[in-house]
Amino acid sequence: MGESTIEVLERIIRSDGEIEPARAAELSELLDEPPIKDVVALVERSTATRAAVVLRLLSRRRSIAVFDALDAVHQADLIGALGNADVYGFFAELDPDDRVSLLDELPAEIADRLLRALERTERDVTGVVLGYPKGSIGRRMSPEVALIYADMTVGQALAELRRTADGLETIYTLPVIDRDRSLLGVTSLRDLFTAEASVAVAELMDKPTFANAHDDAEETARWFLPLDLLAMPVVDDSRRLVGILTVDDAQDIVESADDEDTARSGAHEPLQQPYLSTPLLKVVRSRIVWLLVLAVSALLTVQVLDTFEDTLAAAVVLSLFIPLLTGTGGNTGNQAATTVTRALALGDVRKRDVAQVAWRELRVGLTLGSLLGVLGFLGAWAVYGLPIGIVIGSTLLLVCAMSATVGGMMPIVAKGLGADPAVFSNPFISTFCDATGLIIYFLIAKSVLGI
Amino acid sequence: MGESTIEVLERIIRSDGEIEPARAAELSELLDEPPIKDVVALVERSTATRAAVVLRLLSRRRSIAVFDALDAVHQADLIGALGNADVYGFFAELDPDDRVSLLDELPAEIADRLLRALERTERDVTGVVLGYPKGSIGRRMSPEVALIYADMTVGQALAELRRTADGLETIYTLPVIDRDRSLLGVTSLRDLFTAEASVAVAELMDKPTFANAHDDAEETARWFLPLDLLAMPVVDDSRRLVGILTVDDAQDIVESADDEDTARSGAHEPLQQPYLSTPLLKVVRSRIVWLLVLAVSALLTVQVLDTFEDTLAAAVVLSLFIPLLTGTGGNTGNQAATTVTRALALGDVRKRDVAQVAWRELRVGLTLGSLLGVLGFLGAWAVYGLPIGIVIGSTLLLVCAMSATVGGMMPIVAKGLGADPAVFSNPFISTFCDATGLIIYFLIAKSVLGI
Q1: Which of residues 1-40 of B touch A (CB under 8 A)?
Q2: Where is the CBS domain (chains A, B) (predicted)?
């Protein structure tokens, strides 16, 4: 049912933002019907113009919820299509951390204008978040945190919460501090709520899980999420409470980091906005640089083959196996690379594990290579004779061992050089394995076939 | 500091679980020091034997938190290494949905034994979850949900919550029901807590965001997370409340689905447990089937080249460009495939968008192909003469257009056939683009060079 209402809406509001005149009257009513998630999906699939029309026609409460659910890049795209009043309204309703993410995507003068239009207190809390470096968790936390002191009783703490709840991002996870604002522990509304009013807050306090505002945002979010907490305190270098990181913000951080890794393992940059609503040239731009760099690296293979042109001319049959051998090398390398890239992202593997990883992958590669090598030997022997069988079989063995080892080490080496492991993974590994695989192939062929 | 304690621990507890005797006395103290997240990381990097020793030495509260933070597959691995008493203890402490995930990973007789050791009420709630099919959201929800009726006052609701809080997964997001248990709306502890006791719950109720217990788990979790809610009600087919889905469970679902997609785009199956603690043969097994299938498909390229062997023999120079051309085709195809696979997973693209996607990718491919084609033409012309320049340039143009279109459509077609889009993506697209790219190449070469 929700689905079909959305389809009706897609028909009535055309992609250029024009509304089918005969149906204009029903629109507000139709938009009020489907669940928020369907309206979000509609907006995500729409051009900026249509998305702006939809947002304007929604009730205020629903339009804020929808705008809130969009990525910062998509929000920034919409800013141009929305009227000023709407923009100021949405901007003021965002949490300070989401506000900062959006500011990061906007041209400086628009960002400035938006900031100046904020109320003073809102501008101040936004300023706190803006003060932390990009990529730090301080930039993604909420500075609007409840102040619960360890010397309060449960009754006092609950009264304080009731008084200040309105301006707070969460009142469920409650950092407990001393009068210097130093973090002492964590409690929760659930614990306070089920305790007697006269109990001291200090008695309901757990050892805190917390982050430093300068910690790397992605790393912090990655270890935070599996702990299944709703939020955790963020402190400064002297362990004073400066904010709180909520699970939805941690989730956003991990989601966009994963997007980036997926994109790069597929040899392009992330689009950062829904595919169908991304302008065509933006899609081309996200891919062309990678393609060019990879094509230029592939010149290496032309070079290698050029060197062995005489061998190739002497036995044209060798060229038949080029795609099979380079393909298998590339696949083996990618298997190792994706596994290790993921393990690095999750923190399961660290930089100093490089030797352990190389040793594992060498053994895995040799095992895989033996299996494929035997099959390759038998197949090529049957069709093209014993010498070719020996060449193909032993090349497969060596190429698999080499590719798995290189593929496993490359992401760690990239991280050691300060690069994103995903950048140096799959496509580069394929190209590298192509070139070295071909060298292995022709050296073996020359010695076995005696050319 | 936490880091170094962990390193000391890694030294004292050897990977076979043996403890360095001289240091045994310090152990409990050392294990009490580092934050939970570091102990989780230690356990994830450890063999099952060492992990079991660490879990046994932790305080009860900490060991439960650590066990809880592990993936179900990893938990299942540990079951064998832990003593019976520990296993029953951990199992009883898990939430019903996490318990079911673990049961799914265990051999039937062990699963049975664990279930029978549960207290009756716990066994009953576990049974509710077990009643829903694998892959449904009912299997991942918590059936222990607060019963807040719309005709209660805030005071009554809060009293009811205080009374039952202990057995509930969350008391923050509160589904509101009528006396038939039909879902009417949602409210929150925050709203109740800041309202007057005499207000009717019905007045604080929002239109609910909810899922049906039979809905697909991954799809549901994907649309739920961006809404930044802490939990949402789950209902049966007659819209009666049966449970609640919390953000951490949704997060787990998405995380393991992403793991699977990443693995498959890298041509292997997910390990489902931390890389360094996975036995070597399990790593081999996660890769060998893919490698074999891909190698067999690559026989297609041998076939194609065999067909054009005369052309190759007549102009050996053509073989120099084989890896460059197939590589570029594969890269272009993968770019399109990863983008569309991700968009499908996020719900940005649906099955019926296939024509729109194909049309977008054709235009993107033609744009990319024109750029690369011009460069390829100029380069090949300079080194190998005009005819080869024309062959390389026009092959690049056509291969890019073809690969992008096929790469973009393949994941959607796979989904239409009921397969995981990621399975049919990158590696198969590379193989397919290799073979068709070679055909394009040799047909162009034959007609331009006149062989």
Answers
A1: 35-37, 40
A2: 141-203, 204-260
